[in-house]
Amino acid sequence: MWRRTYLLLVLVRLWFALSSSYLHPDENFQGPEVIAGQIFSYPVRLTWEFTSDHPIRSVFPLWPVYGLPMLLLRWLWIGNGNDGEIPPIAVFWTLRVLMFIISFVLEDWAIHELVHSPRHRRVAVLLVASSYVTWTFQTHTFSNSIETLVVAWSLVLIERILETSQNSSLLASTVLGVVAVFGVFNRITFPAFLLIPGLRLIPHFTNRPLSLVVMAASGLLTFLIAISLDTSFYTPHSISWSDLYRHPVVTPWNNLRYNMSPSNLAEHGIHPWYQHLLVNLPMLIGPAVGLLFTQPQVSLRLYSAISGVFVLSIFQHQEARFLLPTIPLLLSSLQLPKNPKYLKIWVGTWIAFNTVLGLLMGVYHQGGVVPAQVFLSKQPDATQAVWWKTYMPPIWLLNGKNAVLRTEDVPGMTGDTLLEELARIATCDTPADRRSQEYLKEPNGTYLIAPLSTTWLDPYLDNKGLDGLRFREVWRYRKHLNLDDLDWAEDGFWPTLKRVVGRRGLAAWRVTKSCGRPART
């Protein structure tokens, strides 16, 4: 029975991986977009993390995770006799399937390795597989999702080092050195999860110093490779050995220095120290929080999660996704209620919690952004696109159209200022704009992409007069929710919910304006 349930949950995970939800801009701008610009001729927009004088993001972990699959996909594309570049949306879905595969294989495999009791292992695997975090965050291209796998396998390697023979211990130590450096360059928070588990290695290294030597050697070699790749990426000319010696780019160090500054963190949002513990963790695992405090199973996994939460709580900027590595560790450290009545209630609550959050985050959350970019890439007249009250759109999905299409991202712009901007860049209204599909033959076109829940636009959308802006809806996607547009204080709870959920969706309007006397038709 549990095998069939697990197989069903794997299919659910795949279904969510193939959904177009957009959880956070970082899933594009800190990973795929950077490497896509190196391998293909797609237009890319490097964010400040990559363009500052002291860049804080490493490209070293991006190459094996995203670069190799892209290179393989390009090789297969060319090998099959196809001309031109691979459509970026094909690359996008390939990476989603890749994230599903490595989550399904590596995350679940790590749980099998870490949980030794066969009976408890089944429960742990099902809990992790039925979590909406596994369905959504782990199937998206987040550095946090990669960190989850690196932390889990670091724990597996630590156990192998402690439990196996000398030769196997040396192999595991070598791999751990590589994985540990990879984890640090992926996210500087990685060591926080190994503070307590790492202490168990001290007696082993004392008795077998050769294990420490090979781990340090493999880690040093990996460190040098990472520094070389980053320095090459961030140096405008071909690097030499002197560049590596005199001007190395050490992104983890830059990242640590940046995050140690309270003024820098204030730009991203300051949170109280208990944000992770009292808000983010319950939001991620829901009813499992109660079992975590009442029926935990003490294990290396639990200690790793505790150390991670403790260290991350010291930093004042705390987002829920920072805790992703703790989720499989915590869920695999729980004991379900033994009373059948309570067990049935808990399981029902767990299913309901993950179903609701899974659909919300895995299907509807900013779900129209990616399809909207695909739509704009196919509009021959599109030369201006204004995105209002949405996440930053990934421009690498424009399929080369960025050469003629200017994307303007103005999520927090006031309505009056938006109208002024549209009036400045809108094209003149012509008879073609009033006929079906004729506007596509125009040389220029201005598009506004905004959620349907933005009721502020309503009075302007039906303008049929001769003066002012005209909005012609040309595209709509219903599976889109804008959770950043919740205004409980001003509108009240029910009106806000009715507006955001009842009017869910994302639309694209072609915007024109009156220019002098109207043309006769």
TrEMBL record:
Top-level EC class: transferase
Subcellular location: Endoplasmic reticulum membrane
UniProt keyword annotation of rRNA processing present: no
Record Pfam families: Glyco_transf_22
Keyword Glycoprotein recorded: no
Pathway it works in: Glycolipid biosynthesis; glycosylphosphatidylinositol-anchor biosynthesis
Signal peptide annotation: 1-21
Keywords associated with the record: Endoplasmic reticulum, Glycosyltransferase, GPI-anchor biosynthesis, Membrane, Signal, Transferase, Transmembrane, Transmembrane helix
GO molecular function, a single term: alpha-1,2-mannosyltransferase activity
Primary localisation category: endoplasmic reticulum
Residues annotated as transmembrane: 60-77, 89-106, 170-197, 209-229, 273-293, 345-364
A GO-annotated cellular component: endoplasmic reticulum membrane
Gene Ontology annotations of biological process type: GPI anchor biosynthetic process
Membrane topology classification: Multi-pass membrane protein
EC nos: 2.4.1.-
Family to which this protein belongs: Belongs to the glycosyltransferase 22 family. PIGZ subfamily.
Matching PANTHER family: GLYCOSYLTRANSFERASE (PTHR22760), GPI MANNOSYLTRANSFERASE 4 (PTHR22760:SF3)
Protein name in UniProt: Mannosyltransferase
Organism annotation: Anthostomella pinea
Organismal lineage: Eukaryota, Fungi, Dikarya, Ascomycota, Pezizomycotina
